[in-house]
Amino acid sequence: MHAPASRVTITTALRRVVVGYRVVGAMWLCLLGAVAVSQGASPAPVFVTMGLALGWTALTVTVARRPQVLRSWAFVAADLVVSAGTILVPSVGATSMTAFFGGYPFSTVALAAAVRGMSGALVSAAALATATVARIALQPGPPRPQEVVESVVFYVVGAAILAWANGVLVRNEEQRLAAEAALAEERTQRVRSQERAETAAHLHDSVLQTLALIQRRSGDPGEVNALARRQERELREWLAGPPTAGGAAADGLTDALAAVGEEVEARHRVTVDLVTVGEAPVDDDVAALVAATREAVTNAATHAGVGSVSVFAEATAGGIAVFVRDRGAGFDPGQVPADRRGISESIVGRMARHGGSARISAAPGMGTEVELLLPRPAPTVPSSGP
Fold this sequence. Notes:
Layout: H1 10-38, H2 43-63, H3 67-71, H4 73-88, H5 104-138, H6 145-216, H7 221-240, H8 253-268, E1 271-277, H9 284-303, E2 308-316, E3 319-326, H10 341-353, E4 357-362, E5 368-375
Parallel strand pairs: 1-2
Antiparallel strand pairs: 2-3, 3-5, 4-5
């Protein structure tokens, strides 16, 4: 799993931190070297050490953007040689205690921990601890076991802590990226599922309903041709752009519901009695509400066996409510086959996908009432400053 190219991964960030520490360590070494020369240290080994540290630091900065080079054991080994040199070179031929490498050698441990993990960090720590013990042995004077122990513990413990911390950060980053990828995949699947549901609902509302009408009116060729032409036109419009309720765009809820009523009256030869209170602009959610209303009215016109269907819509600040009623044959909602999507997808599912709800009240011989509710968030009023 790869992070996007625009994102800085934790491994890249760790490399940058280590390289930055290397630069600071080199400057630290040069400052201490200048102080050592001013206090009487031999200039030649000091300048050699400073040149070695500065040159290798410049090379490290140059190859920092090539992680495959930094990760190679060859580079880690060369890095160890340079850091060991900054520890040992000032002690060669010295007649007094000369140590000015500062924190530069530990940057090798940090780099090895970042690019090679625990194994690289411990190998580097062991090599630098050995170099430090050798430097102490080369210095004149009595043995200093305490300094030997301190140096070994410092490098080994520091390497273990750095490698462990780097491992924790990298594992956490990998887990986070995996979780983000899973979440993105889940969102993609959810969007695809919603798109499939919307497509199925639209096809049911338009194509399947028209085919059912054509089947019932097969004895009227003119009517069949008109239905087919209208459906072809609506399907082309839907494929060319976002679907709209009733096949045409509307400025407000009242116009959209009126268009639904006119279409159902023309197709099914029933009367749609529409009453609206209040107004609301037609956005995606309201368009879904209108489409669900269209399906409810179409179902009533098709199955109720009555000559009129009543539609009442009310838009308030808190939301929109639509009631579709008929006094026809009614039905038992529990007996609707699972493969019939007119109610489950085109009405209930569509409202749920847009944050609304649908309730069907029906019984055989008692008519049907469909209640559609679409909550609307209250408008936020910006607070005025004092």
